[in-house]
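WARN retry 2 of 3 for item q-0093 after timeout on previous attempt; input resubmitted unchanged.
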Amino acid sequence: MFPAGLHPNENATIRLVLDAASNHGVKLYLVGGYLRDIFSGKAAKDNLPNDIDFAFQGDSAIQFAKVLADKLNGHFVLLDETLDTARIVFDNGKVVDLAAIVGESIKTDIMRRDFTINALAWDAQDPDKIIDLVGGMDHLKNKIVQAISENNLLDDPLRLLRAFRFQAATGCVIDGRTFDLIKKNAKYLAEPAAERINYELFKILEAEDATSTLIMMGEAGILEVLFPELTPTRQVTTNAYHHLGLWDHSLEVVRQAELWTKRVPHWVTTSLDKEIASGVSRLAATKLACLLHDIGKPKTWVITDEGRHTFYGHDKVGADMCEDISRRLKWSTALSKFIVKLVAWHLRPGHLFHQGPPTEKAVNRFYRKCGQDVPELMLLAFGDLGATCGPGLEGANKEALEKSLIELFNGFPVFISKQESTPCLLDGQKVMKLLDISPGPVVGEILEALYEAQCVNEVVGIEAAERFVVDYYKRKNKS
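OK item q-0093 returned
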């Protein structure tokens, strides 16, 4: 029954835990994600799940977890005293969760679980059999996410969102009845803690095709519970530049960005794979910025007498709204700054080319101010351009803008290389001594201007740098 090399008895961590349980006189059942992953094909012999869940039958799962952590040199973590759940974290990255059985037996516990594919259990005393009371094995085979019951979903409303995480991560599809239950009860997703919502949300965004799942979340009303700021985007219609209404445009930007991730060079994927916050990659955060990049448009939407649609200042308004979202969802400072920055800056790559080819100074200034976030900002810019197909931007005009953005994108590593080899001719102390001035913003401004001049070879050598600084300061004082 078990795939070759994936039987629980062949897993060293599982065997250690079960042997300790036997010596301690308690009963454990292997449950949940480990079984789901090995039967869904997600796990392999050289890629076993790190998280292992056990249902505990005995006096106290928490007390046994403390014993187990001590015996196996793990780190004990209390999860929920009321629900009698605890965790052991090992230095090798393995995580073992213990939760007291709900009800009188493993069968009653299974019937209280969320989805059939998570309701599988394994008893070491009957090692070649899977306990499957609700058709979970068939649903894994047929790639279906099905709720066991409506009451089970509402026992923990986070399960309404978790269904979409399982769909995104496993390639399964939420069945019609479950989707209807989620849609009916979507409002209850406002109840779980923000930290738990973030975990599920960013796991969804990690998926290669998160867009399809986001579209279903929109159809179920889930997106608007999480982000009520998106609701007004449904009212913003198509216009000369946008062939889609704003709601659909926002989702299409995510899709286009995902398509671009398959085209970008290694230096970009290296950046996208890095964590911006615990458990959140820069890629997942960028996809959320893509979804939210135009939330400021409804508040700034004006249709002129000539029929033009304008959204002046929507980037700034949207960034402010993202700061509010960040506080509500309790994002880390780094995650908040990153998403707010991408939304605030999402027009800047295109604006560089509005008046024709930009100067080298302007391009270098863009690179410096955006800094390490250039790859992600450009991914948003490419997604936005790909989702903009109205008659006002098509054909040769669109192709020219895309070509310009690609050149801007490819120029960043060249700029970084040049930046690393550009010597520092004068520092702040030398500038203040040269000009006989005190510390202040003007010193930074002068150093910025000097560096710009160096980058385009207008200044070479210390003497030229000193002349540049003196002349710049004189011109500034005259203005």
